[in-house]
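Feature request disguised as a bug: please show the residue count (419) next to DUF155 domain-containing protein in the output. Example input:
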Amino acid sequence: MFPQRHDEVNVKAKDEISNGQQQADRKAPRKHAGKTSSLRSVAVEAQRSRAFVKSRGRTRFIDPDAETKTVTAYCAAETYSISAAARLVKAQGYELDPFQTGLYPQVIHVQTSDRPSEVKDYQQGDIFIFPSGTVVTWNVREREALKLVNQILPSAAEGSHLDLLETEDLDYLEDPSKETSEVVGDTIVLGTKVKQQEPPPDTLHDSSSSKPNNDTDQRHEVDTVLAKIAFSSGLARSTKLAVLETLLSNYQHSTRQIPTMLASNKTSALQSRGHRLFTRSFILRKTGELLSIRAQLNLYSELTDSMPDIFWDSRHELGLGEYYDQVGRALDVGVRIKVLNEKIGFAQEIASVLREQLSEKHGLRLEWAIIALIAVEVVLEFYRHWTEGKGRDDPASTEALLRRYLLTVAKEERPASHS
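Example output, currently without the count:
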């Protein structure tokens, strides 16, 4: 009896040990499965990032099937008064600088709300207002952006030109697997991955260190906004340049016949028919227009600067200057500025020819005026000599009477002297 019970106990113990071992074996793979799933998610994100950007040889481009959003720039004025613009957008219910970037008043940043109103729409996005008279919107519907540009901001504009409103847009997408951003083709790839910072040594075994770091998240949001401002500055620069290109194109259109007329010497014929093309007011007006375009390009804006002043104090690791340059290279801003200056130089040569012609006409008029005065003086002198000669020959003239009187007196004095 006892040996049989002992055998039963041994069998039960073996069964419990084997069951415990099986449970341990089952639990262990679950632990490794969690690590595998996290690594798999990272791999999926990396694969998704690589799926965004395609390559063909040395050419990189964005997958046409990738879901993108739109960033649009509107240039409707020469400059914006930032203080006045801030009052206007604040009156519409926008919150100024919601992430406390510290860049106000160099740039105004507001976010659209999810709650619709007279101006706002359902879609949430970012709006940046620059002193250069440009508004850049990220993921904002056109209706809301045009409402802001056409109806709210003109009161803060100097040199408003809504009739010459220029718009440019780029596509952008957010890549949660990248910490940095870049421009691929005409698409901005915005890296939204939070930069992982190593915790202090004393918190490595602290269970509270696994909680989200609010400071890190807030700093990441600020860095993302700064990246958007850098890309927006580059796009605003291109849009401002497009306005100057349009102004110069209109200028060239109004003066395109001048070289042909100068070559064919038809200016006098046109003026005789009443066209009055090369008047003094016309030449001065065209010279002023050209100088205004050249000043806006080279003096009164940051178009030719290598990097805007607002980025000089930013952290170097953010690479904001590089983002600004990438947009400029993608939109050929440097080449366009060079071509625009060359066109302005050619237009200035035409203006110089017109000024020389105006000066020549003025000098010619002065010469003819001097010739006319000399001719009048000659005529008057000739008339004086003619009247004097005629007076000598006229017996009834005063000079002739005086001469006869003197001769008579002289004859009378001669006999008296002889006696």
